[in-house]
């Protein structure tokens, strides 16, 4: 199975990330609900996964056994996933404008039962890594060459189930599993430092026996290099601690609004115009 989306170079990936950010703003403002800031921090990683040649995917055959898998464990950030999938041809950009509308399959959290190409129904935080580990072990047992990527939030890392999965993944030397922690410094009710300070993820995950890299996750060059390095590890699971900024790409707007978390809030039409101007 070939990598479906054309592998983009660094400058093209940066342009693609901008397009994806614009969709994130457009669809959440249209819905008047959703999580744009949580989606924007994760945009470089999701863009690189889908368009940097890292995932075998076929939008026309989204359940092909040998596909690679991306589990968005921080499911509330699904606008970034819908935007990337629309750009990759799973469905159209027009389709995702129905985000969160009554009856729409573009629900506020990913629903694998309703939308082909979604790997896991997430939103209840803490479960995605266990799910991804199960997928990684399953394809390995079936001798299918498939890599599973899971993205968690840094607030989400406070869930104990994540650490059970980290321990189990090492026990089974699950080298076809990559965890990406989107460390944007905030969770729902405030900064992760105030709510639950787990900030030194690198040494913690490394102590469980994983290969770990810590990078600036809003720097496309660093993201691509880290994903390349992760794929070269063949004896244990890999983790990328992706240090990001919540709302990256439109930070001047959030600064003006005096809310650098901006959790679960769509931009008003007026603020969206200002944000889109920054992303033109
Ligand atoms: C089990 C569970 N508890 C609480 C929530 C409510 N909730 C939704 S988003 C969120 C904050 C998540 O923070 P983080 O993982 O850092 O993601 P970010 O939005 O910063 O990317 C919380 C607590 C949830 N979805 N699931
Ligand atoms: Mg966070």
Question: What topology emerges from the helices and strands here?
Answer:
Blueprint: H1 10-31, H2 36-41, H3 43-51, E1 69-72, H4 78-88, H5 128-141, E2 148-153, H6 160-171, E3 177-183, E4 186-187, E5 190-191, H7 192-195, H8 201-207, E6 211-216, H9 220-231, E7 238-243, H10 251-256, H11 269-278
Parallel strand pairs: 1-2, 2-3, 3-7, 6-7
Antiparallel strand pairs: 4-5
Helix pairs in contact: 1-3, 1-4, 1-11, 3-4, 3-9, 5-6
Bound molecules: thiamine diphosphate and magnesium ion (MG).
The site of thiamine diphosphate (TPP) has 20 residues, from α2 and β4.
Question: How would you sum up this structure, described in words?
Answer:
Helix content is 40%, strand content 12%. By secondary structure, the chain is α/β, with parallel strands linked by helices. A five-stranded parallel β-sheet has the order 1-2-3-7-6, sandwiched between helices. Helix 1 (10-31) packs across helix 4. The model has no long low-confidence stretch (mean pLDDT 97). The structure holds thiamine diphosphate (TPP) and magnesium ion. Residues 153-155, 184, 186-187 line the site of magnesium ion. Thiamine diphosphate binds next to helix 2 and strand 4.
CATH topology: Rossmann fold
CATH superfamily: Thiamin diphosphate (ThDP)-binding fold, Pyr/PP domains
Radius of gyration: 17 Å
Q: What's the N-to-C terminus distance?
A: 35 Å
